[in-house]
Design a protein that fits this description.
17 helices, Immunoglobulin-like, alpha+beta, Cyt_c_oxidase_cbb3_FixG, disordered N terminus, four-stranded antiparallel sheet, five-stranded antiparallel sheet, transport
Length: about 450
């Protein structure tokens, strides 16, 4: 195999998913489907729990744009912490590249939201309309009677799940406790209602109607996955050496392979491909075909693994190894990104303070010997429990601070005016510090007090 064809992609003209026909997915069971549920259900719980579960009246995760912060498990991130969010994205991308090089598109098959919601909608479809074979036969029947009622029930449940998904997703930006009263009352705003309708229809369409078309035509990951893989990457693969030539069960003999051409691998595939045609861009590595084929092999008393996770090297009877420079490069980037992000997380700021001197009036002298400087102060809190700080000034004797003793941290971006004064100062530029404190901590910002014209000569 040449270096230019490490990941062969075979076009399949008769795959129902590629031809636009409706795919009636047959549900199956097995170890990989159990693993997929063990991954997808916690992710679903996390998706809903981050919004619906609150701590001290605040959701676990909230993109609070009015306050210019992101709340995560009681910790607030501001636009000053963009480097942390950037590090998280780099870490996630590095992890995806690393996993893809090892096991192919397992993200698509086991953890992608499109896949998770599609399987939920498929199970609703099976519960309301029956098994895949029944649904396929009924498609040719007139839409009336019980079949019409089943269709209405299915689409109603789909819309209900889609609405719940839309409300939850919106809850990442607007607290759910503010959304629900608006929906149940008559004061729902037009922008919120429009957004919820759009998100509900998108979820309903993506998971219920178009399904595999998103993976085939809209998802960019399926297009550049080959760049991240090599000959030793594990992919769902059909063992043609063992399975070919195919023969029906009644025709199987010593001259035929283990594949009995039952096509169950095609029936359970959510994208409608035939894995026996080779590696294809439409394959999402969900391993449903592996579980289905293993069941057939058990019934035929043959070894499992006719379809399995295997690399191109293994298919050619060549040894596979973990020592791959690019794989360790991904791992190195992943470890560096996670380490740097973790360090930045523990060094993040809970309070950001800006002290700005009033440039229009550097200082003012009064007849009684009082000299004052004018300042503008802005403080933004990125800790939900930090709502107010006390303001003091230190660094010189007998300093007078004129302005609010307590600064409310409402994160509205407003500046508050302060004056720092001193009677009969020594002259020149004197170092001072603004001290902001709550009951437990202090934050200090250095500044200076200009007292007379000696400043001009300084």
């Amino acid at each position: 195999m040449s270096k230019h064809s490490l990941i062969p992609l075979y076009p399949v003209a008769d795959a129902s998913g590629l031809e636009g026909g409706k795919i009636h997915v047959r549900l199956t069971e097995g170890r990989f489907q159990t693993l997929r549920r063990l991954i997808s259900w916690p992710l679903l719980a996390l998706f809903f729990g981050l919004v619906w579960v609150e701590a001290d009246g605040t959701p676990w995760l909230l993109f609070d744009f009015p306050q210019r912060r992101i709340l995560l498990f009681g910790t607030a991130f501001s636009w000053y912490d963009l480097h942390i969010l950037t590090g998280l994205m780099i870490s996630g991308a590095s992890l995806l590249f690393f996993v893809s090089m090892l096991w192919g598109r397992v993200w698509c098959g086991f953890a992608c939201p499109q896949t998770i919601w599609t399987w939920i909608f498929i199970r609703i479809e099976r519960w309301t309309e029956g098994r895949a074979s029944v649904r396929q036969r009924q498609d040719a029947l007139p839409l009336r009677g019980k079949r019409l009622l089943r269709k209405i029930l299915k689409h109603s449940i789909w819309l209900l799940v889609a609405l719940l998904t839309a409300v939850t997703f919106t809850g990442y930006f607007v607290p759910v406790r503010d959304i629900l009263p608006a929906l149940t009352g008559s004061e729902v705003s037009l922008p919120l209602l429009t957004w919820l309708v759009i998100m509900t229809l998108l979820t309903y369409t993506n998971a219920g109607l178009v399904r595999e078309k998103i993976c085939l035509h809209a998802c960019p990951y399926s297009r550049f996955q080959a760049v991240m893989m090599d000959n030793q990457s594990l992919k769902v693969s059909y063992d043609s050496n063992r399975g070919e030539p195919r023969g029906a069960l009644k025709q199987s003999s010593s001259q035929t392979g283990d594949c009995v051409d039952c096509r169950i691998c095609v029936q359970v595939c959510p994208t409608g491909i035939d894995i026996r045609d080779g590696l294809q861009a439409a394959c999402i590595d969900c391993a449903a075909c592996i579980d289905a084929c293993d069941q057939i092999m058990h019934k035929l008393h043959k070894p499992i693994g006719l379809i399995r996770f295997a690399s191109a090297e293994a298919a050619n009877k060549k040894p596979s190894g973990l020592w791959r420079p690019r794989l360790f490069g991904y791992l190195a980037v992943l470890l560096i990104a996670f380490s740097a992000t973790g360090y930045a997380f523990f060094e993040k700021k809970d309070l950001v303070i800006e002290v700005r001197r009033d440039r229009d009036s550097l200082y003012r002298e009064f007849s009684d010997g009082l000299v004052c400087n004018f300042y503008q102060i802005k403080a933004d809190s990125f800790q939900p429990s930090l709502t107010q700080v006390r303001v003091e000034v230190r660094g010189q004797d007998d300093l007078i601070l004129q302005g609010p003793a307590n600064l409310t941290l409402d994160n509205q971006g407003d500046w508050t005016a302060y004056r720092v004064c001193q009677y009969h100062p020594e002259g020149g530029v004197l170092p001072i510090s603004f001290v902001f404190s709550d009951q437990l901590r202090e934050w200090t910002r250095p500044s200076s007090l200009i007292t007379n014209t000696d400043y001009q000569q300084h």
